[in-house]
Design brief:
With 127 residues, the protein is mostly helical. It contains five helices and two strands. It is rod-shaped.
């Protein structure tokens, strides 16, 4: 046992450096994961689409105009959710897929952006 203790005393500094060399990359990796962690948010896609459909049903647009507006709305919806995810480093879950837990809800933010975009394309329907 005395040989072991004398070995440790003799090579203590080398052992510390080796231990740090092993542990530092792990710490750097953990820091990287924390800084690049994706946050999860929820979005009520079904409710948003239903609200748009309901609003659309109150207009006097022709079937062709409604089809074009629906296509534009869905394009805006796809772009807005993708942009939000990229800008905020987020994973967007549809609200129906979340059983429990408290996740931030971005529905209102996305719906407001969608409303602005639809009003720019169809200004007569803005009210």
């Amino acid at each position: 046992m005395s040989k072991f203790i004398s070995f440790i005393k003799k090579h203590y500094n080398v052992m510390i450096v080796m231990l740090l060399a092993i542990l530092m990359p792990i710490d750097v990796y953990q820091t990287y994961l924390i800084l690049h962690e994706k946050k999860m948010v929820i979005f009520d896609m079904q409710g948003s689409v239903k609200a748009f459909e309901q609003q659309l049903s109150t207009t006097n647009l022709s079937q062709d105009q409604q089809t074009k507006l629906i296509t534009q709305f869905l394009t805006f919806l796809n772009n807005d959710t993708n942009n939000y995810a990229k800008e905020h480093g987020a994973v967007i879950l549809v609200s129906g897929a979340v059983v429990g837990g408290a996740l931030p809800d971005i529905t209102q933010s996305i719906q407001e952006e969608l409303a602005l975009q639809v009003k720019q394309v169809w200004p007569a329907q803005g009210s």
